[in-house]
Amino acid sequence: MTKRTYGKEYGFKTRAVHTGNDVDAETGAIKRPITMANSYELPYDPSDMNWSSAGGNLYTRNGGSNQKYLQEKLASLENSEDCIVLSSGVAALSGLFFALLEKGDHVIFSSVTYIAVYRLLNELLNNKFGVETTIVDTTDPENVRKAIRPNTKLIHIETPGNPTLMISDIEAIAKIAHENNALLSVDNTFASPYNQRPIELGADFTIESLTKYINGHGDSMGGAIIGKTEYLDIIRAQSQINLGGVISPFNAWLIMRGSVTLPLRMKQHNENALAVAKWLESLDCVSFVAYPGLESFKGHEIAKKQMHDGYGGVLSFGLKTDHDTHNKFVSHLKVITSAVSLGHDESLIVFLGEDDERQYLYPDEFSNGFFRFSVGIEDVEDIITDIEQALKKVGLL
Ligand SMILES: *Cc1c(COP(=O)(O)O)cnc(C)c1O
């Protein structure tokens, strides 16, 4: 049997291909198989086993082999010690919050985040379980410093933030967190570890929705918490085994397979999105373009510092037109699909209307309705031509 475990002496692309894979000891296959079993054979005398343990093969909710292979790869790609893979990005976020926070603890979180984070921290954990929460515009680290309380346990930021792309300075906020005995978690879904690795910048936890870039093909769901084993053991025991948001072996396998091409896909997403953002910015009918790669974007300098290989595939933009023309424009698109989610191979667009309940947390230019556009890896000329012909059909070009 050839040993194929690749350590940090290898580059990112080599690890995306090899880490977590090995020759299958039983068959000699050069790809590890999917183990579609939920239970494992017990030892001769199982009576003293810990049924809530994460060690060893016992029951798939406690830990399955495909889940472990994927964890090995993701921990390596994020340059961290350990990883927990769960059933969705939201299972990872709620699993982190549930295990770390207790009644009376205080959390500071970014004003622009994935909607479930807003629900969890602004409605559920505070009202149901007595966790104190403060929404902060984390684009200025000083706002975070001012919001710190003696009981601040966790700072949770999302950068780039969904859907405004707002950028927060990971290194500066990690410093503030640690000076105040708090932990920092960063939702890295928009960047992916190819473009940004929060733990290298001082964060304690990285959260990834694997549903997006890491799987990359729009055909499965998963989430990951990456960080030190010291904390991840607690999260594994409390949130994976006892909350139960475990990933299926098949989804772990699909994501493992999709992640092999993460570096190639991200390179194309980065290039396509930058080209589309620049082109959109040049049009008179476009009211604004939010993309961290544009020099005109507010967070560009910080993004340049912390996003080492590019700015990702998601941008938001507005059109100088009325509500219904936005929908008409979308109905004329042929290459780009109107659907939520992002980070798929194909381009996806979603119209977020004027009455989003969190509009008050967004910059002014977002108040007339806007598009969140996940630029895919198609030929960039085809993406631009598609937008162009749809704008012409609604009389904006
Ligand atoms: C999609 C998304 C999530 C949630 O992930 P799911 O896999 O859909 O549960 C979390 N954070 C960000 C930034 C996302 O875009």
Automatic annotation (TrEMBL):
Pfam families (UniProt xref): Cys_Met_Meta_PP
Keyword terms, alphabetized: Aminotransferase, Pyridoxal phosphate, Transferase
Keyword Transferase: yes
GO molecular function annotations of the record: transaminase activity
InterPro entries assigned: Cys/Met-Metab_PyrdxlP-dep_enz, Cys_met_metab_PP, PyrdxlP-dep_Trfase, PyrdxlP-dep_Trfase_major, PyrdxlP-dep_Trfase_small
Cofactor(s) the protein needs: pyridoxal 5'-phosphate
Family: Belongs to the trans-sulfuration enzymes family.
Protein name: Aminotransferase class I/II-fold pyridoxal phosphate-dependent enzyme
